[in-house]
Each structure stands twice: as C-alpha cells, then as structure tokens.
Amino acid sequence: MSGSYIPLLILFGVSLVNALGMVVVSHILSPRRPTPQKSMAYESGMIPLGDTRLRFSVKFYMVAISFIVFDLETIFLIPWAVEMRELGWSAFVAVSIFVAVLAFGLVYEWKKGGLEWD
Amino acid sequence: MELDFSNQAHFIVALAPEIILSVWGIAILLIGVSRPDGPRTSSDLGWLSVLGILVAALANGWLYSVTEVGTDSMIALDRFALFSNWILLSGAALAVLISLSYVQRQGLQAAEFYALLIYSTVGLMIMAAARDLIVIFLGLEIMSIAVYVLAAINRRDPRSAEAGLKYFLLGAFSTGFFLYGIALLYGATGSTHISAIADSIASGNAHGALLVFGIALLTVGFAFKVSAVPFHMWTPDVYEGAPTPVTAYMSVAVKAGAFLAFLRVFAVAFEGAYESWWAILWWLSVLTMVVANFIATVQVSIKRMLAYSGIAHAGYLMVAIVAANETASAGLLFYLLTYTLMNIGAFAIVILVSGQGEDRLQIEEYAGFGWSQPLLGVVFTVLLLSLAGFPGTGGFMAKVFLLQGAMEANLVYLSVVLVLTTVASYWYYLRVAWYMWMRDAPPDVAGEPIQVPFAMRLALITSVVLIVYLGIFPGATLELARSSVSGLSAVGPGLIGLGP
What we know:
The complex is a heterodimer. By secondary structure, chain A is an all-alpha fold. Chain A has helices at 6-29, 58-82, 84-112. In chain A, helix 2 (58-82) packs antiparallel against helix 3. Chain A is flat. The N and C termini of chain A lie far apart (61 Å). Chain B is globular and about 70 Å long. Chain B is mainly α. Chain B is 75% helix and 1% strand. The interface between A and B is small, with 8 and 6 residues.
C-alpha cells in the first residue's frame, strides 16, 4: 500500500533539493558588491521614507477581524448554496441559525462602536 | 421519552441545556451593549446570567426523564453527561455569584465577562458529553478561547494581560498535541468515535505503534489542561495574574471539564489498551501529587498556594483514572463536585480580603483575620479543612472514595502516596488557618470590617453548607455518581463491526 506513495516522496525530495539548491548555490556563486543604493530598502523605486516597523492603529485590526467573520460566512454559505436542493429544509434551518448568530455578532459589534472609524 | 434521532427535534431536546446557555449568552451580550454602562447594568447582567444557568440546570434535570437509543451519537445523553453538567453548572453559577461585586468593583466589561463565562461553560459541557474526539476538540476550543479572553479581561492590569497571553500560547501549544493525537488515533483505528476506537482496539485491528503514540499525545494534551506535573508550569502564573473570579472558575470548572473528558476517553476508548497507558498515568499522578504539594508549602501568595493546591488535587484525581473502575470513576465525580464547591468558596474569601487594588494577597496578611471577622474566619477554616481532607468535610469523603477505587484496582503504592501527600498538604492549608487564628493582626489594617455583598454571601453559604452535608451524608450523592458511571464503557450494539 505504502509503495504507491513513493512517487510522492520522490517529488517531495526533488522539490526540496531544488528549492534549497537555488538559495544555497546563488548564495555561494553570486558576486557581492554592495553600494548604499543597493542596500537600501526597496519601495517600488522611491527613496524609502523611514523605518518599515511602523505602529499601526488598532482600527485596522478591527476591520481585519470583521472581515474574517464574513469571509468564513462565505466559505460556509457557498457549498451549502451549491447543494441547497439536495440538502433540504434541515440544512436551511441550520444555515439560518448560523447566519443569525453572525448577525447578532454584527449587531453587537455595531452597537459597541467597532464599525466607527473615529 | 425516547430519542432515536429520527426527527430533527430530537437533537434540540438532547442539547437543551447547551442551547439554552448559548442563546442566553447572546442575549446577555446584546442587552449589555444596548444599556448604558454602570454598576446597575453590571449587577443586572450578573443576576441574569445566574438565572440562565438555573434554567439550563432545570433543563438538565428534565433530561433525566429522556433516554437515548444506542451510543453512536457524537454527544452523549447518558447519566455521566448529566452528572457532569451538574458539576459544571454549579461551578459556573457559583463563579458568577462571586464575580458580581468583583466585576463592579474593578469596572470590568460586565456583558462580555458573563457571556464569555457562559460560552466557556457550554464548551465544557460539550467536552464532558462528547463521544467523538473531534467533538471533544470542538468543546475544548469553545471553552479555551473564551477563557483566554477571560484571563486577560482586566486589560488595564499588566498582570492580567500577561496571564491571558501566557495561557493562550501554552493552551494553543497543548491543543496542537491534542489534535495530533487525534490524527494518529484516526490513523491507527480508522475512526474518531470513542466506541469505534474501543472496538478497533478490542478486535486487535488497531495499528500498535500509532495507537501508543496517539494515546501519548492525547495524554499530553489532557495533562496540560488538568495541569498535571510536568505540564503545570503555566498554572501558577496564570492563576496569579488572572482576575480572581476567573481563577476560581478556571481552577474548578475548566479542570472538571478536562477531567470528565479525560475519564470518558481513557475509560471507554482506550479500555482495551490499558496495559500501554496505565504506567504513564501512574507516574504522572505520583509526580503531580508529590511535586505540587512540596512546592505549595513554600508559597507566600495565597493565589499561588491555591494554584499549587489545585495541581495537587489534579494528582489525586488522576489516581481515579489510573484505577479505571466504576468505584474510582464514581469517586472522581464526587470529588469534582466537592472540589468545585470548596475551591470556589476559598477563592470567594480571597476576593473579599484582597480589596480594591488586589494587593492583599500574601498569606501573612491573613494574620488576625479570624478574630476580626469571626464568621468569615470560620467559613474559611471549614473550606481549608475540606481542601486538606479533614474528617467531617466533603473533601475527606471524596478522598476516601478515591482510595476505595484505587484499592479495588490494587494500586497500593499509589494509595500510599495519596495518603502521605494529603498529610503533607495539611501543613500549608493549616498554615493559613494558623495565621488567621493564632497571629495578631498588624495594627494598621485591623478594624476595617469587610462588607460581604449578598451574592457573595449566597455563594459562601451554599458551598459551606453543601460541603458539610457531603461530609456527613455523602450517601445519596455517591449513589447518584455511582449510577452515573455504571454502563459508561458499554459499547452499543449498533457499532459492532463498524471498525476498519
């Protein structure tokens, strides 16, 4: 049974050697002549404006969290929508409960001020 | 009423307490945001949570009239699950009662606090009733995520934030072990359902090495959650930093839920592989009892002392899992109930004494407490004696039942260690009592009486009365525990031949 996995193992080995090889060989063979311009951080060709380690406002985090909730909602809703007729009413009720719980979460977030930018 | 799950409504009936609590938690959150913040709202939400837990308890009592057909459902509706719910719901209700004044005093966000407490209780109830490792994992996560936030809910206090982060990192790490264990067990037996795993092991189809690895990883996962030595490192820090009512809740309900799932998995699924796991748990149990009791003797902070005492109790409880017979399992249920009552009571006193800034947490600060507050002093002494296992209290009877189970399984050395470490534990419990009654209070703090709010009084009276009752008349409760575990490991006829 495990014999059928050998091609997979070979593929894994080849890709590992390939990936490591590219990094290691270019590290060994490449010429290195650093200039101040070359060792500058790359910002699409512009001259960098400062440190990349900025402090972000926590508001961005709130938006990201809200996004994840609705993202997951989509992940569950689309497979259900595809198979809706086969799954029948019990699945419809289950999905409705799921959406309702998320809706209560949204109401909570809204009331709590999680959607206000200022 | 019989449930055969032919009708969708049967699922709702079987999960009534969990569903009631979940809906209640959402309602509390929504009520909390639609009313202005303030002490009034805070206490209203607290009482509302107590009401919700009582309604769930009523539903739980009603479920005794319901029987399920077969044992192949993912969440069990057996007597064991119902008894577990009693333990977890009483732990949650008492935790809310002792939180009421604390949440007001520290200005915590009441709606979030109570809602998270209720959600974590739901997770624990699912864990204790689960018959499928994936469902146990689901319950574990519902509980853990809520408790991570609860530990850090006093976010202005760096100690609380540190406790939350520490618990989160180590909890997530141990969850990884647990999940990997489930994966290996699935590989070894072809199922995540504990009856199917038991069948597979009994028929000899299970893959030996994978099975042992899977059991070992699950042991690590559970040992983290019940804080057994050497997986206990997070416990004192987290218990010390978390808000005191949360510590109380974690030390009783979270531990109880983990132990109940631990027992069900090891007594049912791994019954046939007893030879391969009992020695590991034997050593874990001995290590936990010895190390925790020794470290507890040198603690100066009462919260740390109670944390190590909690670890030591985990050691005693693991004896029941090693014994793996019905007497020991009934003893474990009885012990968890008693432990819930007495530990919550002890933490209630800690909340009362610690005061606004939570700065009075040293054991020395209990000097003269007994004489300045005689009633509270007597209550605390009873609770400490029960934690130590003094005759006449529930803690003593609980240890007796554990010992009975251990002796029935011929675990002589383990029983000896249990008795000796219990005797050693008298030192640190009675040291607090000694400070309370035998030392004079320092002159600057004497004379300021502690106000005991109504909810706190209710919790303290409940726990002390029940502990004395369980110590003197343990018969009825033990009988209930015994009937709850009988037939726990029975494998239903529907599953025979379902193995790989």
